[in-house]
Amino acid sequence: MKRLRFSCQSHAEEKNISYQNLERARYRTDGQFDTLQQALQQQCRERCHHEAREWQLDAAEAFLSGLDCTILAGTGFGKSLPFTMPSFVKTDDVLIVLALLNSQEDQV
Fold first, then answer.
1. What is the pLDDT of residues 61-87, one digit of tens each?
2. Predicted TM-score (pTM) of this structure
3. Over 70: is that where the pLDDT of 43 sits?
4. Residue 56's closest CA among 85, 29, 32?
5. In the chain, what are the domain boundaries?
6. Taking 90 as the threshold, does the pLDDT of residue 19 lie above it?
């Protein structure tokens, strides 16, 4: 797999590149991303009893499209949901590994 190198100066530039990558992935799905995001949102309502935020849907879509994804946000902002949402719509086995002890050390 070819590694891409980025030299960005700001978070806004990084976000822009991420969304360009997501748009390219969407182009390859022949417009099915609307249906995918609707399915993710519906499953989130049914299973979690709340609406997913747009960035959570985009991140889950990125995972399902095979893109690498990093989410930077504060505690309690909802970072775990995008990692879980793909399992709502895929029947494949999914393994999620969380290094909780490492996370706790960072929080102290």
1. 898 888 888 888 888 899 989 988 988
2. 0.70
3. yes
4. 85
5. 11-107
6. no
Cβ neighbours for 21, distance < 8 A, ≥ 6 positions apart = 62, 67
- Structure tokens of 18? 């991420």
| Whether pLDDT at 58 is above 80 | yes
Q: Are 86 and 37 in contact (CB under 8 A)?
A: no
Q: Please answer whether residues 106 and 80 qualify as being in contact, where contact means their C-beta atoms are separated by less than 8 angstroms.
A: no
Cβ(33)–Cβ(61) below 8 Å? yes
How many CB atoms neighbour CB 15 within 10 A? 12
Q: How does DSSP assign the chain, residue by residue?
A: -PPP----SSHHHHHHHHHHHHHHHHHTTTTTHHHHHHHHHHHHHHHHSSPPPHHHHHHHHHHHTT--------TTSS-HHHHHTHHHH--S-------HHHHHHHH-
